[in-house]
Amino acid sequence: MKAAESEVPDAHFTVDKQNISLWPRESPPKTDPCLVLRKPLMVRAAVITLMLGLAASILLQAILYPWFMRTISDVKTNAQLLKGSMDNISTLGSEIKRNRGGVEATSLQVRMVNASLAHVRSQIEKLEAGMRDAAAQIQMLTRRWEEVNDLNAQIPALKRDLGKASSLNAKIQGLQSHLENISKLLRQQNDILQMISQGWKYFKENFYYFSQVQKTWYSAQQFCMSRDSQLTSVASESEQEFLYKMAGGLFYWIGLTKAGSEGDWYWVDNTPFDKVQSARFWIPGEPNNHGNNEHCANIKMSSLQSWNDASCDNKFLFICKRPYITSEP
Ligand SMILES: [Ca+2]
To answer: What residue ranges carry the coiled-coil annotation (predicted)?
Structure first.
């Protein structure tokens, strides 16, 4: 077998640009008929196999080549797309870097705005508190205003009451004055009663003491002075009438005397002596200055014309006079 194979020349073929050449290197050796019959069959089978392989190869090339070419083209396209994406990513990175500063500035501004918002919020809260206070004040003022309105409504009634009160006040003042007068009168009556209990008579704001004993004119004057009084003066007709009626026809010294034997008549209590008005009180024909020794006057008769001049040394009853002075409360 090995000898047979070594005797068979190798078949050579080349594939060059799809041209296939097949040739033997040397002329085939001579063989026996059996071998010669079997060799073409084997060659043919080999050739057919090769042809088949060659055809399959061609067919595969024809099918795969476009597929490879499309795949390569797709890969190139994907590579370009990837590169573009990388470029875009790079651009985005730079933009991100560039924008980072802007973002930080924006963040700072946002913080500032937040701070401003907090300040504004606190201001708003203060304003709200102020508004609440103002509302409370307004409510209070409204209540006060209502109270003022109520008072205004009461003013007419108050004016009427005030008028009544004023009238009452006037009446009260009148009553007070009346009471004061009554009190004064009571005090006067008390004083008068006290003086009357001591033997004095009261007539028109004066007290009069009609003595029970007789004295000379001077002694009588001294007695009166010891009782805070003077021998009486006669300043009016009514007083003259009061005195002579009380005297009842008895002799009473009065306070009329002369300054010396030739002097004018005068009242010892310093009441001004009206010579003309007093002329009607003398007994007709008096004063006659009998014996040139009659320098003192006395009531002698129970009539308007009752005066007589007599000697001051005569002892007569006498009349003291004290003005009434209201005692202080
Ligand atoms: Ca006489």
So the answer is: 117-144
